[in-house]
Amino acid sequence: MHLISRMARTIAGLSHKLALLLCGVASMLPMSGTAAYPEQPISMIIAYAPGGGTDLVARAIAPYIEKYLGDGARILVVNRPGASGEIGFSALANAAPDGYTIGFVNTPSLLTVPIERKTAFTWQSFDLLGNLVDDPDNFSVHTDSPIKNLADLAAYAKANPGAVSVGTTGAGSDDHLAMLLFEKMAGVKMNHIPFKGAADVRTALAGKQIAVAAINVGEALQYAKGGSPMRHLGQMSQTRTTLAPDLPTFKEQGYDIELASLRGMAAPKGLPPAIRERLVKAVERAATDPAFQAQAAKFFAPLRYLPPPKYEIELRAADAQFRKLWNEIPWLDK
């Protein structure tokens, strides 16, 4: 009996040591692969053409996200323009939720395109990583244009129905909705010309292929500083922005229109929690890094960081507003 008892105690002791050994080995192993993340380059999808406001912010912030992710992270910017952002948003939504595909999502197109038609995504198709930019809309004309303000634009459009061509970044974009709202309030009819991105709109205006560029304030200021022959007519913010303190708002000129583009970061829905947390923290630290903010200021990017919960609140409220607007002005018919 004593021998059996001693054997039992010996076996129990060995089992305990084995358990401790296994725990030690397990603690050194990656947890579901997240400890080694990222082991390969991360693709950052931009749903618009190179040279636009989103593309510039993406390329500026990518090195900072790499820095705060650490572990030798590399981010490759991939432009997937077209269909008012639908091509890029769909590619992002349908990618594997493994942390190796992230990207930018832009309002209102992120919200309006699924209202217009059946799509491979809605705004709920993504894990939000944080919003970066809040850029009010604006109308710009060529510096040779006789149009000096919104009153001039309304008068000319009334006298020449359908003759005023307006370049935008696509049907259902903030630029397009801005045009439709102005048409409604001014009682005029203009001609919508969609492009793949703001850079293309700028080029068309410079070449006088369009009369008006519906373009965000930050982008417009950046292009004008770069030498584009542009005169800005008004910003669609509640009050004058610090970026353009001398540019009157639409409301000041008699048109109560407020419209802006949020540009935030997201990933396919279903990220592993640990990877999602790392990406969210990296985006937040990058967005609040003084060096990145100084760089963004050089090309007039109006930064407004929102953490995922607050970003979701903004998207949910905007989605309801655009669904209401769709019932009043179904923009695909325009």
Fold and architecture overview:
The chain is of the alpha/beta class and 334 residues long. It has 2 domains: 42-134 and 261-333, D-Maltodextrin-Binding Protein, domain 2 (3-Layer(aba) Sandwich), CATH 3.40.190.150; 136-259, D-Maltodextrin-Binding Protein, domain 2 (3-Layer(aba) Sandwich), CATH 3.40.190. Helix content is 44%, strand content 19%. The chain contains 11 helices and 10 strands. It has helices at 2-28, 53-69, 86-93, 109-116, 150-159, 174-186, 198-206, 217-225, 273-287, 290-298, 308-328, and strands at 42-46, 75-79, 101-106, 126-142, 165-168, 191-194, 212-216, 230-235, 260-268, 303-306. Strands 1, 2, 3, 4, 5, 6, 7, 8, 9 and 10 form a 10-stranded mixed β-sheet that branches. Strand 1 (42-46), helix 2 (53-69) and strand 2 (75-79) form a beta-alpha-beta unit. Helix 2 (53-69) packs across helix 9 and helix 4 crosses helix 11. It is globular, with a radius of gyration of 25 Å. The model is unreliable at 1-8 and 10-33 (pLDDT under 50).
